[in-house]
Design goal:
The chain has six helices and 15 strands. It is α/β, with parallel strands linked by helices and 302 residues long. The chain folds into two domains: 212 residues, Metallo-beta-lactamase, Chain A, CATH 3.60.15.10; 70 residues, Winged helix-like DNA-binding domain superfamily/Winged helix DNA-binding domain (Arc Repressor Mutant, subunit A, Orthogonal Bundle). It has a seven-stranded mixed beta sheet, covered by helices on one side. A six-stranded mixed beta sheet has the order 8-9-10-11-12-13, with no helix packed on it. A hairpin with a 2-residue loop joins strand 8 and strand 9. Helix 3 packs antiparallel against helix 4 and helix 5 packs across helix 6. The longest helix is centred in the C-terminal third of the chain and has 24 residues. The chain binds zinc ion (ZN). Zinc ion binds next to loops.
Length: 302
């Protein structure tokens, strides 16, 4: 199955881009290899509004959001996960609007930290954010003419949630599924087993299109998510093949299987290989000397 990424995107910083009836997108000016052109915030509703992913703590982006809101009541600020490109602006937006913040929960890692372990994504995690309302799977928040249902999708982050706009076929997929790139899955912040289960979760749904946290729409989402799953399975096979061929370390495996990757992303690639190895060790297909880590050595299970 082929996986076609769509990297066409016009961020239109500072402008509210209409996407669907009662849905606009505002992109923050925080481009990077990890955020593409920047973080997408979405505003839902016409009279009473909801903001999905306010974004990084950025003055210009806050001004753009407030200009579009234009004094209308904002009832909820929904946060997909607690990474610094998504949640920090919630605090100032809440002060200005009085809206209630909603998320699965505060920041946490997918597994308990080992003694002395610093999570790889620590610098990009927002540990200050605590939602007013901790929403569970299928939890609903609603306003004038709209209702948003939480679809918990851990993997990229342990507290990652997507939100379905009821009755429209629109899913705000945040960083779980994006059209321009695969999602970063890096232990201990995220977990490959969770990520794969969250892809299955979306395959079971019948959404029409996704509005991600970075880049443009995911059209034909079922086919795309199947492609993402196949892509990870292919990477898993490639890792098993490298181990069978004698590679024993993550740097050796990365060098062999990420030949076409931007070198700035080698760190992320290493974490992705670690995520696969953690899953492979957990399911008994690979052995490691001690707990799986970037420095550990690995071998096929006997
Ligand atoms: Zn992000």
């Amino acid at each position: 199955m082929s996986l076609d990424f769509d990297t066409r995107f016009e961020p239109a910083y500072g402008q509210a881009v209409p996407i669907a009836d009662g849905v606009v997108r505002l992109t923050a000016n925080n481009p990077s290899p990890f955020t593409f052109h920047g973080t997408n915030s979405y505003i839902v509703g016409k009279d009473t509004l909801a903001v999905i992913d306010p974004g990084p703590d950025d003055d210009a982006h806050l001004d753009a959001l407030m200009r579009f809101i234009a004094g209308r009541p904002v009832s909820h600020i929904l946060v997909s996960h607690t990474h610094r490109d998504h949640s920090p602006l919630a605090a100032r937006l809440k002060t200005l609007t009085g809206a209630k913040t909603v998320a699965e929960g505060p920041h946490r890692t997918a597994r308990a930290l080992r003694l002395g372990e610093v999570p790889a994504l620590d610098a990009s995690s927002d540990t200050d954010f605590v939602p007013d309302l901790a929403i569970g799977d299928s939890g609903l928040v609603d306003g004038d003419g709209w209702a948003l249902r939480a679809v918990l999708t851990p993997g990229h982050a342990a507290n990652h949630a997507a939100f379905a706009l009821e009755g429209t076929g629109i899913l705000f997929s945040a960083d779980h599924v994006m059209a321009w790139s695969t999602s970063i899955v890096a232990p201990p912040d995220g977990a490959m087993s969770d990520y794969m289960a969250s892809l299955d979760r979306l395959i079971e749904r019948d959404d029409r299109f996704y509005l991600p946290g970075h880049g443009g729409l995911v059209t034909a989402p079922q086919k795309f998510v199947r492609g993402l799953k196949a892509h990870r399975k292919m990477r898993e096979r490639a890792i098993l093949e490298r181990l069978a061929a004698g590679d024993r370390s993550i740097p050796d495996i990365v060098k062999a299987i990420y030949r076409d990757t931007d070198p700035r992303l080698f760190g992320a690639a290493s974490l992705s290989v670690l995520a696969h190895l953690e899953d492979l060790v957990g399911t008994g297909r690979v052995v490691s000397d001690g707990a799986p880590s970037l420095e550990a050595t690995y071998a096929p299970a006997p």
